[in-house]
Design goal:
The complex is a heterodimer of chains A (478) and B (213). Chain A contains 17 helices and 19 strands. With 478 residues, chain A is α/β, with parallel strands linked by helices. A five-stranded parallel sheet of chain A has the order 5-4-3-6-7, with helices on both faces. Classes of the chains: A alpha/beta (478), B alpha/beta (213). The interface between A and B is large, with 96 and 73 residues.
């Protein structure tokens, strides 16, 4: 916001503009827009203080039927029996259960068959639909933009505001179109694409912008791949990212529990189709990429922008922009990686496949294709955490759990797991992980000195098999 | 640690006090408040945990201690930072921890979007300075940690003794802070009829609402 306020947004005719206009409630005295929120997702970490704030103000939940809850951050992935071993985790879930019961909010809880990471379950239940505004007290809410929704993370005071009023005070963002030509090569995934975008535009590049991902390479992506892409828009500084809805979107949604059906389905598709950015849409900015030129991409540093192709070397200071050099030096020290050395071959200790970025069925399929018939290298801890109970069931139905187990991976229960270590899954000491999650910040995975290399699920599987960072393409072609 | 001043209420036009400089770009909210401290159902205990891991790391190093642990910065009200401060997780626990430690305003080169909004919702102004100005402010603050700084939120200006630096604050947040309307809840609730009218025109709430549950 600080930067974006310096230039007036000029975009028009984009999906973002259309959805924004439709959801405008009023102009507020401070100059912000009051924006109606079509879907409010809540979870155990950022909602308890919001419900307490609501109670302090003597308010109720305005639209409990537009509010949906699940539990994900704090759940253990080994045993999910209640009460949890961690009393703080148990208190958080119990508080969520009590708040949902008191206010008449549907909670997709453990064992319901629908529990999972909030950004996995809302799409797979058909709750997330094109043209909606979606808010959640979690920055990776940008995920839902994959459907052509305008979706963004909010803080707890704003969660309270949405509970109370089903709306938010917001400033309008500018819109940057990220146009991607060509097609991703075999062994290169949406995760690599988004890491490449962030590497190029930087972790601050998207501040003040919504990112519209468009072009032939984007149109060819599945819904799950689009979710991976939009999920990490926030890592590039863009509070929301989106893809225009098309037949792939509609095919994904049809038949899901909360999707329209019958006559309503036809009406919905007609409206959804009208939302896409038009040929005459005006963008505040546009950046172009060539998908075919992107290699499997991996982070070497302490921000998601410090990424390189798996065939590259850790950048030297000379190869680093002057104003990025202090951060690079901090990253060399923290990661204990030498500038100028190849990232491939870096030994790893822990391999984690899961998270709201890459914990969906196609992610597990891609990793299983690498793991099948091979075995995790000695001394490596490798585990797979499905993003939801539905993902787990679908994966088990096609035997992926067996593929992973036979290859030496642990097969866990759904949750956020080691993406952020608010549960028993965490790094210890200076362990280094190959992780399909979204953040490589210092301390992110639960050890203050733990280190994270972000990469695609297939690349994590390759790292697990070889015990070191490896180009997954060599395994896929073997 | 000295007793922090009361939490922000009402119109916020000035913030006065000593400063604390935390240098570096892209300082994320995991560093401001590590995730393990998010296991709580109130924000009450977060103050001492601000920058917990960075502080522990620096305490054990030659470069330490962390600015938040230096005696001269106890009681500081104005936090001075660099680019993209507060990136990453949306956790309001980050500004809550800073506020409970004693911070009442942040001045930096730029802020991550969600963090900025979370601060505003707590009545903590975030003002921006260009790169050179920010370095000059940080140098002046580090040269005299006991100096009282005056942040004029309304005029977007920082002063210390004879020195003064121009800052930037967008018109919207400036007005919200000046009028005491930075906590949006009341404004949002005032528009009940408009909220209903908006819901009425949303196709997914009226024309083809899905009934399955």
């Amino acid at each position: 916001m600080a930067d974006s306020d310096r230039r007036i947004a000029v975009s028009s005719g984009t999906l973002y503009d259309k959805v924004w206009d439709l959801h405008q409630v009023a102009q507020l005295p401070g100059g912000a827009t009051q924006l109606f929120i079509g879907l409010h997702l809540i979870h155990e970490v950022t909602s308890p203080q919001a419900f307490a704030g609501l109670k302090d103000l003597g308010l109720s939940v305005r639209h409990p039927e537009r509010t949906v809850a699940t539990v994900d951050h704090i759940v253990p992935t080994t045993s999910q029996a209640r009460p949890f071993a961690d009393p703080l985790a148990e208190e958080m879930l119990a508080t969520l259960e009590a708040n949902c019961a008191e206010h008449g909010i549907t909670l997709h809880g453990l064992g319901s068959g629908r529990q999972g990471i909030v950004h996995v379950i809302a799409p797979e239940l058909g709750l997330t639909q094109p043209g909606m505004t979606v808010a959640c007290g979690d920055s990776h809410t940008s995920t839902h933009g994959a459907f052509g929704a305008i979706a963004f993370g909010i803080g707890t005071s704003q969660v309270r505001d949405v509970l109370a009023s089903q709306s938010l005070a917001m400033g309008k963002l500018k819109v940057r179109r990220i146009w991607v030509d060509g097609q991703l090569q075999s062994g290169v995934y949406a995760k690599d694409l988004v890491l490449h975008v962030i590497r190029t535009l930087g972790v601050k590049g998207g501040v003040g912008y919504a990112y519209e991902f468009a072009g032939p390479a984007i149109e060819a992506l599945s819904m799950e791949e689009r979710m991976t892409l939009c999920n990490m828009a926030i890592e590039g500084g863009a509070r929301c990212g989106y893809v225009n809805p098309d037949s792939i979107t509609f095919n994904y949604l049809q038949g899901r529990p909360f999707a329209p059906s019958g006559e309503a389905w036809q009406q919905a598709v007609a409206w959804w189709s009208s939302l896409a950015s038009g040929a005459d849409a005006v963008f505040d900015d546009e950046v172009r990429f060539d998908a075919a030129a992107i290699a499997p991409t991996i982070t070497w540093g302490i921000t998601p922008g410090q990424g390189i192709g798996v065939d590259e070397t850790v950048p030297t200071l000379e190869q680093t922009e002057p104003d990025e050099r202090p951060l690079a030096e901090e990253a060399y020290r923290y990661m204990d990686l030498q500038p100028g050395t190849p990232i491939a071959g870096t030994p790893v200790d822990v391999c984690f496949i899961g998270s709201c970025t890459n914990g969906r069925l196609s992610d597990l399929q891609a990793a299983a294709a690498v793991a099948r018939g091979r075995h995790v290298a000695p001394g490596i801890k490798a585990f797979v955490v499905p993003g939801s109970e539905q993902v787990a069931a679908a994966a088990e139905a096609e035997g992926l759990d067996q593929v992973f187990r036979e290859a030496g991976f642990e097969w866990r229960e759904p949750g956020c797991s080691m993406c952020l270590a608010m549960n028993p899954d965490r790094l210890e000491g200076r362990q280094i992980s190959a992780s399909s999650s979204n953040r490589n910040f210092k301390g992110r995975q639960g050890s203050a000195s733990g280190r994270t290399l972000l990469m695609s699920p297939a690349m994590v599987a390759a790292a697990a098999i070889n015990g070191r960072v490896s180009d997954v393409r060599t395994l896929l072609n073997a | 640690m000295t007793t922090p001043t009361p939490f922000p209420t009402g119109p916020i036009t000035t913030v006065s006090g000593t400063t604390v400089v935390v240098r570096g770009d892209d300082i994320d909210t995991d560093r401001i408040i590590p995730a393990r401290f998010l296991k709580c159902v109130t924000f009450d205990a977060l103050g001492p945990a601000a920058f917990a891991d960075d502080r522990a790391e620096l305490a054990a190093s030659a470069a330490g201690p962390h600015p938040f642990d230096r005696p001269e910065h106890q009681g500081a009200a104005i936090l001075l930072v660099n680019r993209n401060f507060g990136c990453g997780s949306s956790r309001e626990h980050a500004p809550q921890a800073l506020m409970r430690w004693g911070i009442r305003a942040v001045v930096g080169e730029s802020f991550a979007e969600i963090f900025y909004g979370n601060c505003l919702a707590l009545g903590i102004p975030c003002l921006v300075a260009d790169h050179d100005t920010m370095l000059a402010i940080q140098q002046a603050a580090e040269a005299d940690p006991a100096a009282a700084f005056q942040l004029d939120v309304a005029a977007a200006q920082l002063r210390a003794g004879e020195q003064q630096w121009p800052l930037d604050l967008a018109a919207g947040p400036r007005q919200m802070l000046a009028t005491g309307q930075w906590d949006a809840t009341g404004q949002l609730l005032a528009n009940g009829e408009e909220l209903e009218a908006t819901a009425e025109r949303l196709p997914y709430l009226r024309a083809f609402v899905a009934t399955s549950r």
